[in-house]
Write a structure and sequence with these properties.
Blueprint (H helix, E strand, L loop, with lengths): L1 E5 L2 E15 L2 E14 L5 E12 L5 E6 L7 E2 L4 E10 L3 E12 L5 E12 L6
Antiparallel strand pairs: 1-2, 2-3, 3-7, 4-5, 4-6, 4-8, 8-9
Pfam families: DUF525
Organism: Flavobacterium stagni
Protein name: Co2+/Mg2+ efflux protein ApaG
Length: about 130
Amino acid sequence: MVTQITKGIKISVSTVFEGTYFKNYKLHYAFSYEITIENHSKDSVQLLSRHWEIYDSLNDLEIVDGEGVIGKKPVLKPGETHTYTSGCLLTSPHGAMHGWFNMVNFTTTRNFRVIVPAFRLNAPYALN
């Protein structure tokens, strides 16, 4: 598990290799990741959008931007936590992701960026 705190918001990420799948006649490696967002600040915040940079050892960088996370824009009061699970497909058994969440602080009405630390996506049988 990797963790990072930005402006009082703690992000923790754990990953699971889910198996291989054929898609469009090509082998893909499926990974799930669970992200926990903890509000350690004194203000209520809301997650507005996300930005992902997905690296596959056999392909170019893929950038994914979108509103919220899995269709939600969670509001976290001080001390609250939000956990969600999502996933991605790679064309190789090795890759990595990192990115950020754009959030708003309800006290200051200012937007800010919370860093999601880089996490590896590795199929366990492919490691030496």
